[in-house]
Amino acid sequence: MPDVTKTATAVEDAVALPADPAPAAKQEKARSLWGDAWVDLRRNPYFLVASVLIFFLLLIAVFPSLFTSASPTKGDLVKHFLGKPELGSIGSEGWLGYDGQGRSVYARLIYGTRASIIVGVAVTAIVTIVGGVMGMLAGYFGGWIDALLSRLTDIFFGIPFLLGAMVVLQSFVERTVWVVVFALAFLGWTQMARVMRGAVITVKHADYVHAAKALGAGTGRILFRHILPNAMAPVIVVATIALGGYISAEATLSYLGLGLAAPTVSWGVDISTGVDQIRVAQHILLWPSIMLSITVLAFIMLGEAVRNALDPKLR
After folding, report:
1. 196 within 8 A of 136, measured Cβ to Cβ
2. Are 70 and 104 in contact (CB under 8 A)?
3. Residue 128 lies in a domain
4. Does 145 map to a domain?
5. What is the phi-psi region of residue 314: left when phi exceeds 0, alpha when psi lies from -120 to 50, beta otherwise?
6. I need a surface site. Which of 64, 128, 140, 257 has the fewest CB within 10 A?
7. Can the peptide bond before residue 263 be classed as cis, meaning omega within 30 degrees of 0?
8. Residue 26: inside a domain, yes or no?
9. pLDDT tens-digit profile of 261-285?
10. For residue 180, what is the domain's CATH number?
């Protein structure tokens, strides 16, 4: 007869054996909000197109000499207004024509990218930091701190953006790129502060924030480890879209003669010059206008793609 004890032991061992862990190991690891957003962005054609355009613009801004060997400020009056549409192209550096001083429109287009990108990126970085800090403090602490910072935000928000920037720029004798950055950032942080304040008010009531407080986490740790990472999504969306707006604002101020001025090479400066000469040389106005529109459109497309990826309701 078979040994009943050994048989029972074998059955118990078989029952106690753990299930095959392979299926569980093969299960896809749960992704965070940022992981899901990145997956969605890689599948979004608008994000891909915008990323290629922005990368190309950044490459031009950092290494303009890779795209042209001509000087954007050196002119030759012999080439005065050459290259108008009816005359055709006249060479590699002048295939977009020349302006009234005989300067290459193509070279000025390439070197003007740097000023616009610097203004857009620098202003966006400053307003995101300043507005983000103020909004985070107001939303988290509430009370009199929220009241004080909110009233300060309302005061600056009530000043018309372009009109206020004009007044600020008028107080400077020399208007360089960084002066324009200061003028735009001085009045542009209010929107970021409001967006961050609303996001922090929503996040600070989450369970993980209450748990961190119960465990004795300090205010700094709660703000920068728990609240800030979870409140940054709407700020990133607004900042990405606003970057194109700041580039457009710089061009507008330069067009009005209150922003960048010669000898600084800028699309806004060339657009202002092109308007005065539109009857005799339309190409001077045409090409910087197209370049400005493409740049603003690229950042708006990027912002829309990021917004759709970070908002679960839009997926």
Report:
1. yes
2. yes
3. yes
4. yes
5. alpha
6. 257
7. yes
8. no
9. 878 888 988 888 888 777 777 888 8
10. 1.10.3720.10
